[in-house]
Amino acid sequence: MSTPPFLTLPASARSIRLATARGEFAALHSMPPSGSPRGTALLVPGFTGSKEDFIALLEPLTEAGFQVVAVDQRGQYQTGGPADPAAYALELLALDLLAVTEAVSGLLPGATGPLHLLGHSFGGYVVREAVLLGGSTPESLPWSSLTLMSTGPGPVAAEEGKRAELLVSVLPLMDLESIWQAMREMDREAGVEQQLPPEIEDFLHRRWLANIPEALAVTGRQLTVEPDRVDDLAAAGLPTLVLSGEEDYAWPVTEQAGMAERLGAGYVRIPGAGHSPNAEQPGATAAALADFWLSVN
User: Where are the extended beta strands (E) located within 128-263?
Assistant: First the structure.
């Protein structure tokens, strides 16, 4: 889970509802001052996350000339979803993303430039699945590039997998408020409780309670069983960047670097960042992303 450093949108950004063939999705939409973007970035959050995970990237990316759309996936925060576990299968989340991509392409018809896709953490699974569903060649895909941020080739690391399995096991037994309080108590006992501004703590609480429990159960389980599909992704041939922090509790950075090598992709490690470079070092992260996207242009 990313913790956004602030919640106030920059002047360039607004909250929107994206109407798609698969329903409406909550999103943040940011435009460069010129109104004529050099490209468009579609940002997909991870497990228990939301579009706000990318809020600190909006201003530096728009200043670099990019239109940015960050979206809540089905079952997350302000998008919502049905109380049906089948709705959150990875393939269906990927189909959602393909529908969102089509809607994003229509925000500024003919003026959006190249479309760049980014997935953070669990969102990396979703963007990978979407690429594999979307076509067999780069020319058949709607995106010009792919960025895998703080994600890995297969299941999360063992300790993180245990935490995901614990959450999945208690979801049928406890409501989300009770689970939230239990997680906070565990953090206090472990001495890892974050001291956050009240508005950030309140947001994280509200966002957690807005999750669809069935989505948490299915996606949490997926974190522990996702197969390694890097070779399939490499065969798709889409220009790719792998970006991580200096360390990562979910996937070791050595594993992420190895994934980049197997993909024939660039690899950037952001100093001073952990699992969420987007929130922890947004300036350096935005600069690395803009450099990559401009190289693809």
Answer: 145-149, 240-245
The structure's pTM equals: 0.96
CA dihedral 194, 200, 206, 208 (to 10 degrees): -40
Helix (H) / strand (E) element for 224: namely helix 213-225
**d(C-alpha 230, C-alpha 58), whole Å:** 29
Which CATH code, of 3.30.470.20, 3.40.630.30, 1.20.1290.10, 3.40.50.1820, is assigned to 13-155+227-296?
3.40.50.1820
Task: Tell me which amino acid residue 176 is.
Answer: L
- Listed by start position, the domains of the chain span 13-155+227-296
Q: Per-residue confidence of the chain (297 residues) as pLDDT tens digits? A: 789 999 999 999 999 999 999 999 999 999 998 778 899 999 999 999 999 999 999 999 999 999 999 999 999 999 999 999 999 999 999 999 999 999 998 876 655 689 999 999 999 999 999 999 987 678 889 999 999 999 999 999 999 999 999 999 999 999 999 999 998 888 787 766 678 899 999 999 999 999 999 999 999 999 999 999 999 999 999 999 999 999 999 999 999 999 999 999 999 999 999 999 999 999 999 999 999 999 996
Q: What is the spatial distance between Cα 31 and Cα 61, in angstroms, rounded to a whole number? A: 9
Task: Give the separation between CA 143 and CA 125, rounded to whole angstroms.
Answer: 16
